[in-house]
Write a structure and sequence with these properties.
single chain; alpha/beta; Rossmann fold; six-stranded parallel sheet; 10 helices; 12 strands; 21% strand; globular
């Protein structure tokens, strides 16, 4: 890949940012499509996010901003326009510069996650799903699971206000199919999902107990680095089927191509 004065810029914002996998997937895609662009990681401490985004948006050759933990909810409020999915979930993971110079927010976490599940043979249609985490990624995954036909969705998060707001948004589109709790309730779930940052660090506690799951459950994690989190390692040892975080990003690649007009 050759970088020159004509190269268009994309960034991925996170705090931390060392775990991001998108440059390793998007930069080879740019090269394959012969797109003169580069995606670089930017460590954006949470207190400085608004100032950092404003500075990036002022860069004339910057076309897109990808967003990872913990900025997805805040990023939704830093765009001029928001997609229906962003309005439902309250979070964004991609911002695009429009021809008029304004910024449009979208969220592909949920659709990418579901695409990865389906590709791996774990279609959520007509199934009961448990989801840990009602933050930016969790909200998007919740909406996408219901849109994909999940019969029941149980969402767990210690933040009661966040949970109530998410349930209200989901019920407006898929009434009566979501239950919420402060503590994990995995009873009856055939697919269980960790949509929290727990697992990024070796000493993180488990988001839920894999030994309490039904036999041969599908245990999915959105943490991409490490690839095999403690949750997935313990779940596999108990005979559960595991689904890695990288599948969510892989499921988003075609959507990113269309969103950013990459061909």
């Amino acid at each position: 890949m050759s970088i020159s004065g004509t190269t268009r810029l994309y960034v991925v914002l996170g705090d931390p940012v060392t775990q991001v996998q998108s440059p390793g997937l998007l930069n080879p895609l740019f090269a394959k499509l012969d797109v003169d662009a580069v995606l670089v990681p930017v460590h954006a401490p949470a207190p400085d996010l608004e100032r950092i985004v404003a500075g990036l948006q002022a860069i004339a050759n910057l076309d897109g901003i990808f967003v990872t933990v913990p900025h997805k909810v805040a990023a939704a409020g830093l765009a001029d326009r928001r997609s229906p999915m962003v309005e439902i979930t309250g979070s964004a993971n991609a911002l695009r510069r429009e021809p008029d110079g304004r910024w449009y927010a979208e969220n592909f976490d949920g659709t990418g996650f579901v695409a990865g599940l389906v590709e791996a043979g774990h279609d959520p249609q007509a199934r009961t799903v448990f989801l840990a985490g009602a933050g930016g990624a969790g909200s998007a995954i919740a909406a996408a699971l219901l849109a994909a036909g999940a019969e029941r969705l149980a969402v767990c998060d210690p933040d009661s206000a966040k949970l109530a707001a998410l349930r209200a948004r989901l019920d407006a589109h898929w009434p009566g199919r979501t239950s919420v709790s402060a503590e994990p309730d995995t009873a009856g779930a055939g697919i269980v999902v960790n949509a929290t940052p727990l697992g990024l660090r070796p000493d993180d506690p488990l988001p839920f107990r894999p030994d309490e799951l039904a036999p041969r459950s599908v245990v999915a994690d959105i943490v991409m680095k490490p690839r095999e989190t403690r949750l997935l390692r313990e779940a596999a040892a108990l005979g559960h089927r595991v689904h890695y975080g990288i599948h969510m990003l892989e499921g988003q690649l075609n959507a990113y191509r269309a969103f950013f007009g990459l061909g």
